[in-house]
Amino acid sequence: QVQLVESGGGLVQPGGSLRLSCSASPNFRSIYYKGWYRRAPGREREMVASLVSDGSINTGLAVKGRFSISSNDARDTIYLQMNDLKPEDTAVYYCTDDGTFWGQGTQVTVSA
Is the separation of the CB atoms in 78 and 34 below 8 Å? Predict the structure, then answer.
């Protein structure tokens, strides 16, 4: 069993940046797929970015060029760097392994 805990959300103005973190217990070493998803009010859950163990990265079209996913050397934390944030990025952001385990989510609000 894997426990995932997200952090780093908050209120930011349009054009600002945030970095979300997702810590895994015990770690991500045995997990092939790591992903960030988000759900905005009234909308379906959306894949934001994913990272697999071979280093392959996939980024959603809505955030391509603005968001990036990475992990630390210890492979117990993944990050989502979010730049040039827009109001439509407002959502609860979740990390997951392959969809089996999910964190509790962290709220990101982009507003002037």
Answer: yes
